[in-house]
Amino acid sequence: MAESTATPTTTTTTTTAGSPARLADDTAQGKTTIAASVVQKIAGIAAREISGVHSMGGGVSRAFGAIRERIPGGGTGTTNIAGVQVEVGEKQAAIDLDIVVEYGASIVELARAVRRNVITAVERMTGLEVIEVNIAVNDIHLPNAEGEEELPVMQPPRVE
User: Could you say which protein family the record assigns here (predicted)?
Assistant: First the structure.
């Protein structure tokens, strides 16, 4: 006959100091919601703070951003979130970033630094838990490619 010994189990919830308060907690004073555009702006600013990030967005969004900046009133509120897509729930956020990296920067180390900075900034400022930050490196900025980009030189085909 096997003896069964039951040990009492207790479930404790631990929170770390500095752990953000969750937004879904209703209080007697009300409920707080945060718009996705707010999370987009925070993530975009946090990503640009990292040395080695040249710009945000793919080629098309950068082109439209340059056009918007030239239109009076067209650059307000939209240019600072190019290259940032977010999904925001009541307690969590997921962030996708499209970045252009400076030539010579270690992309792996840069992505780690960007991810860490974005998660820290969004969680600290909003209280949302960032469940993922996906980073797509779309281009590398070359030191001599300032201003307008040069058109590629057309070479004759190697085969006929």
Answer: Belongs to the asp23 family.
Give the separation between CA 73 and CA 70, rounded to whole angstroms.
9
pLDDT, tens digit, 9 for 90 and up, residues 124-138: 999 999 999 999 999
pLDDT at position 20? 43
Helices (H), ranges, the chain:
36-48, 59-70, 107-126
DSSP state of 27: B
DSSP 4-29: -------------TTPPPPTT--BTT
pLDDT at 70: 59
- Structure tokens that stand for 129 in this block: 């838990």
> Domains of the chain, with CATH numbers?
36-141 (3.30.70.1350)
Model-wide pTM > 0.70: no
129: β partners: 92
| DSSP classification of residue 140 | E
3-class secondary structure, 113? helix
Nearest alpha carbon to residue 55 among 95, 86, 85, 82: 82
